[in-house]
Write a structure and sequence with these properties.
The protein is mostly helical and about 220 residues long. It contains 13 helices and no strands. Helix 1 (about 1-10) crosses helix 12 (about 175-190), helix 5 (about 65-70) packs across helix 6 (about 75-95) and helix 8 (about 105-115) crosses helix 9.
Amino acid sequence: MVEIYQRLLSAYGPQGWWPGESRFEVMVGAILTQATAWRNVERAIERLKAAGALSPEKLASLSEEELAELVRPAGFFRQKTRRLRALLRLIRQHGDVEGLLSLPAGELRRKLLALPGIGPETADSILLYAAGYPVFVVDAYTKRILHRLGLLPDEKAGYEEVQELFEKELPRDPKLYGEYHALLVRHAKDHCRTRPRCPGCPLAPVCKSFKGQGDF
């Protein structure tokens, strides 16, 4: 796992992920990015900022219809509106954003997973990028890359199984985890696509799929 990280970092450089001017913005982004491209999330975030609504208090003052219209560019905007409102209720229960994010990692994760539409990837994104806990975020890109490298027998492996592969071999460092996750996303977009682009791939020397099938 360390060698993969070093190869990706050497190829792409630091990614500076997750973009956000506040911990709350990161939390909102984690929900809005579900099932959509990040550029669509950026458009929704820009609309929220332009409306002066990117704070728990301002967001809570909006009607469901108003909030849905602002986040429309992120897609599935009605579902995401309900999820954001559920997050706001959880924040209020703990006083404020800092109160919620100061909960122990396990407790915070359980509370996030109890919210409608919040799965492990979204919850762990909040734990890692907003709360600063050393929790490795796993997504479909991660599974695809590991499977092609020969490190994951089944691309449909469970979330916790894949997460453990990273957490047992890497230092428990949230900055490292965040950078690694971002590099995997970058690599999946540049080379390890659904139809892979193997020429020039920085992981080719350690990729079993590449060695076995040339350029696919």
